[in-house]
Write a structure and sequence with these properties.
Blueprint lengths: L2 E6 L4 H12 L6 E7 L5 E7 L2 H7 L8 E7 L14 E2 L5 E6 L5 H10 L11 H12 L4 H10 L5 E7 L6 E6 L4 E4 L4 E4 L11 E4 L5 E5 L2 E4 L6 E2 L15 H7 L1 H9 L3 E2 L4 E2 L8 H5 L3 E6 L2 H17 L3 E5 H4 L10 E7 L5 H12 L3 E6 L5 H5 L2 E4 L12 H20 L4 H22 L2 H11 L4 E6 L3 H16 L2 E6 L17 E5 L5 H13 L4 E5 L8 E4 L8 H19 L18
Bound molecules: fructose -6-phosphate.
């Protein structure tokens, strides 16, 4: 959410900043801007409402400089506009700041600054930072000290980059709750809110810790604590569309490979269990847990719901999932015999991070199931499992959802085999997991038919998604995908709840998308479909067999019943994607949304 990039070195900063912003655009895309330190010792800047491409068009050719900062915005304070776009500058245009996060006491600080005669040009919380830092700089001392003093007055979250026209040898960055990563080049340095902006230039990175401030200069960096650079595993190609028209479609098609990576080296075929080295829990500790609580937001929460069901089924430990965003606000009872699991693709989602911090503060044991290597959530947890799904650029999660469910299956198998899951059942799960990549590829091969159905269903104003038990989280994620990218109204309900209310909505104008695995609940589900059709509701069923109870059927291959939700989710991703394409939506950048929700 909001992208920051900074460069200092021998090259012209402008094309590097623009390229970085383009890579970060999935974090926010309502306005963009850059500021560069110019040769005559001033700051040149330009910011516009709109996309990075609009900024590029608006840049004057004379804007050049060897250091600069850039920003792509997702609005929190003040609507998207040229004035509210970052960077923000002080009145003398000596200091320029880009910021990701929320300054909670911005109104109070604004009043104080106004009392001192400061005039504000935007409605943003960020502008107070520019004025506070300028005031601190005016008192003398190093830029780093001035930034530190200014930040002491601030309550809230930030990842910032600061340019001082009078100190063109450095850029100061700081983080508190919003990520900042430094990139080390050959006689040049970078900083960004996300490695996506860095991979084209360097593989050597340093993650800042919360509360830390750093200086980058062309010849190196200084952080508060000594830090060893880490080497990035991702390739620039992961951030390209690779011939696909959208990242979303590319990432849907990457799922066989992503699942393969999530499984690699983790299947223990001797003991019919999973090898998960990063849990940092021994068998005795694991046997001591009486409950499992899974926390995540949005699609991560729905994947967590699949995970909780897997753990309950395979390990017979009571497990449930809850939105991390709710959990953190309700003063939760934290139990020492509960295993908490935080799920996050980015590893940065503020609500999930806050839930983990609250749990750790109260002594809870937290594992992370995270895609972002070295991310804040991964570092905050006691242990965990990385998804290895590869970078996910499209705002709507797909491959990380699937990889999360797969990692949960491994974890559930591992917990199960330490309890009462038999070797035969362990082997059954291993074989099922091994079959997944091929089966997913088979479903993807049906894309044309799914696209045709999606193009037909978009004539309805909305859709109701239903599923029972294993099918319910699949239905929820299906509805989530559809509404995110197509903007059609989509609601998910447990199939068993339909007759307790939502059936009143069903009629020729509201089709029902039903997730119906061929499991012990098949007959009950088919009865529900009959009830829908008796009200002239059209039914699209995703399941394992053809039936007259549905108007349209999307078939997926059966796996082990516990693993079926993973496969049943795939056609619904393609359905949402093609619905959005049929409606001409901006598939990778749906309105009002951003990847990585790093604000509350
Ligand atoms: C849905 C989606 C969001 C995220 C949610 C959590 O397609 O992308 O609902 O799943 O914001 O994000 P992470 O997983 O990064 O914590």
């Amino acid at each position: 959410m909001c992208g920051i990039v900074a460069y200092i070195g021998p090259k012209d900063a402008v094309p590097i900043l623009l390229e970085g912003l383009q890579r970060l655009e999935y974090r926010g895309y309502d306005s963009a801007g850059i500021a560069v330190g110019t040769k005559n010792g001033g700051i040149g800047h330009r910011k516009v409402k709109g996309r990075v491409a609009d900024l590029a068009k608006a840049l004057p050719a004379r804007l050049k400089g060897g250091l600069g900062i850039g920003h792509t915005r997702w609005a929190t304070h003040g609507e998207p506009s040229d004035e509210n776009a970052h960077p923000h500058l002080d009145a003398a245009e000596r200091i320029a700041v880009v910021h990701n996060g929320i300054i909670e006491n911005a109104d109070e600080l604004k009043d104080t600054l106004k009392g001192r005669g400061v005039e504000f040009r935007s409605e943003t919380d960020t502008e107070v930072l520019a004025h506070l830092i300028a005031a601190a700089v005016a008192q003398g001392g190093e830029l780093e000290d001035a930034v530190r003093r200014a930040l002491r007055e601030v309550v809230g979250t930030y990842g910032i980059a600061v340019l001082d026209a009078e100190r063109p040898d450095r850029i100061v960055v700081a983080r508190n709750g919003s990520p900042i990563v430094l990139g080390i080049g050959e006689k040049e340095m970078f900083a960004a809110s996300d490695v996506a902006a860095l991979v084209r230039y360097t593989r050597q990175v340093v993650h800042l810790d919360d509360g830390e401030l750093a200086t980058i200069r062309a010849d190196g960096f200084r952080t508060d604590t000594a830090k060893e650079p880490a080497t990035l595993e991702v390739e620039p190609v992961h951030y390209d569309r690779a011939g696909f028209e959208h990242f979303l479609r590319k990432e849907i098609h990457e799922q066989p490979a992503a699942v393969g990576r999530a499984l690699r080296g983790r299947l223990d075929e001797r003991f019919h269990t999973a090898r998960l080295g990063g849990l940092n829990l021994d068998a005795r500790e694991i046997r001591g847990f009486r409950r499992v609580k899974v926390l995540g937001c949005g699609s991560a929460y729905y994947a967590g719901q699949i995970g909780a069901q897997l753990i309950e089924e395979l390990a017979r430990i009571p497990a449930d999932a809850e939105p991390a965003s709710e959990f953190r606000y309700r003063n939760p009872v934290v139990e020492s015999d509960t295993l908490y699991i935080a799920v996050s693709q980015s590893g940065e989602t503020y609500d999930t991070l806050a839930a983990v911090q609250e749990l750790r503060r109260k002594g809870g044991r937290v594992l992370g199931i995270v895609n972002g290597v070295g991310s804040a959530i991964a570092r905050e947890c006691d242990g965990g499992v990385y998804l290895h799904a590869g970078p996910e650029v499209s705002v709507a999660s797909t491959k990380s959802f699937t990889a999360t469910a797969v990692v949960f299956a491994l974890l559930a198998q591992h917990l199960g085999r330490l309890h009462d899951l038999s070797p035969a059942d362990g082997r059954r799960i291993t074989e099922g997991l091994k079959a997944l990549p091929g089966q997913i590829a088979g479903i993807l091969a049906e894309e044309e038919r799914i696209a045709a159905l999606a193009a037909e269903y978009v004539r309805y104003p909305g859709m109701l998604f239903i599923g029972r038990v294993r099918g319910y989280p699949v239905a929820r994620e299906g509805a989530q995908k559809l509404k995110e990218v197509s903007y059609l109204h989509a609601e998910a309900y447990p199939a068993s709840e339909l007759k307790h209310g939502p059936l009143a909505l069903v009629g020729p104008e509201l089709p029902v998308i039903a997730v119906v695995p061929d499991d012990e609940l098949l007959d009950k589900n088919l009865t529900t479909l009959g009830e829908v059709r008796a009200r002239r509701g059209r039914v699209l069923m995703v399941g394992h067999r053809r039936t007259d109870a549905a108007d349209d059927v999307l078939l997926v291959p059966a796996n082990e019943p516990e693993l079926d939700p993973i496969l049943l989710s795939i056609p619904l991703q393609l359905f949402a994607y093609h619905a959005a394409v049929a409606l001409g939506r901006d598939v990778d950048r749906p309105r009002n949304l951003a990847k990585s929700v790093t604000v509350e």
